[in-house]
């Protein structure tokens, strides 16, 4: 067996270190060049989601209550017409984030948009379908999941994706809890 020299051990280690350093520098440079564009795209996606869940002329800046972010939806005269809540709950594949619109007048859901989901492709991802999400429109607080049919307080579960269906329902119900905190804060302060 041949004795390994310093050159046999150090040269590959130095080469590996240099390759890793160059890759790290390239990734850092790419991040620096693209971070503003990534932020801009995220803001645009958020604005599109807000507009998808409630028809409003404008939205207030982000507000926070009990660790939850929400926006006030305003008409052309800056009158409050509703709220948009950014809600995150646990789902089958991890966190699920929704934008939920609720009207100020009758406190009914005006729309739901899933902005982040990592559930099972083909099953849980069916929750992003507009026709399934539209079940929530017009419903009030206390929505439940039913596997067979839906009523004024129920939504029909996605076949083979009951956990995801329940997660979206939990997100909508959590939005109503945040609404209650917002209205409680408005009355108290």
Topology:
Elements: H1 6-53, E1 58-59, E2 63-65, E3 68-74, E4 80-91, E5 94-103, E6 109-116, H2 130-133, E7 144-146, E8 154-156, H3 162-188
Parallel strand pairs: 7-8
Antiparallel strand pairs: 1-3, 2-3, 3-4, 4-5, 5-6
Task: Give a quick rundown of the structure.
By secondary structure, the chain is an alpha+beta fold. The protein has helices spanning 6-53, 130-133, 162-188; strands at residues 58-59, 63-65, 68-74, 80-91, 94-103, 109-116, 144-146, 154-156. The model has no long low-confidence stretch (mean pLDDT 88).
Features:
189 residues; alpha+beta; 6-stranded antiparallel β-sheet; two-stranded parallel ribbon; elongated
Could you walk me through the main structural features you see in this protein, from its secondary elements to its overall organization?
It is built from three helices and eight strands. The protein has 189 residues and is of the alpha+beta class. Strands 1, 2, 3, 4, 5 and 6 form a six-stranded antiparallel beta sheet that branches. It has a two-stranded parallel sheet with strand order 7-8. It is elongated and about 80 Å long.
């Amino acid at each position: 067996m041949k004795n390994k020299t310093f050159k046999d051990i150090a040269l590959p280690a130095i080469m590996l270190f240099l390759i890793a350093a160059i890759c790290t520098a390239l990734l850092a440079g790419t991040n620096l060049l693209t971070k503003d564009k990534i932020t801009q795209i995220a803001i645009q996606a958020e604005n599109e989601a807000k507009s998808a869940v409630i028809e409003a002329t404008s939205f207030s800046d982000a507000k926070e209550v009990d660790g939850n972010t929400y926006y006030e939806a305003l008409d052309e005269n800056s009158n409050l017409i509703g709220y948009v809540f950014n809600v995150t709950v646990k789902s089958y594949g991890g966190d699920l984030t929704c934008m939920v619109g609720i009207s100020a007048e009758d406190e009914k859901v005006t729309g739901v948009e899933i902005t982040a989901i990592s559930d099972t492709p083909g099953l849980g991802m069916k929750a992003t379908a507009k026709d399934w999400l539209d079940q929530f429109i017009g419903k009030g607080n206390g929505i439940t999941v039913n596997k067979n049919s839906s009523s004024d307080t129920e939504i029909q579960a996605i076949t083979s994706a009951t956990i995801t269906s329940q997660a979206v329902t939990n997100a909508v119900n959590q939005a109503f809890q945040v609404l209650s905190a917002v209205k409680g804060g408005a009355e108290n302060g």
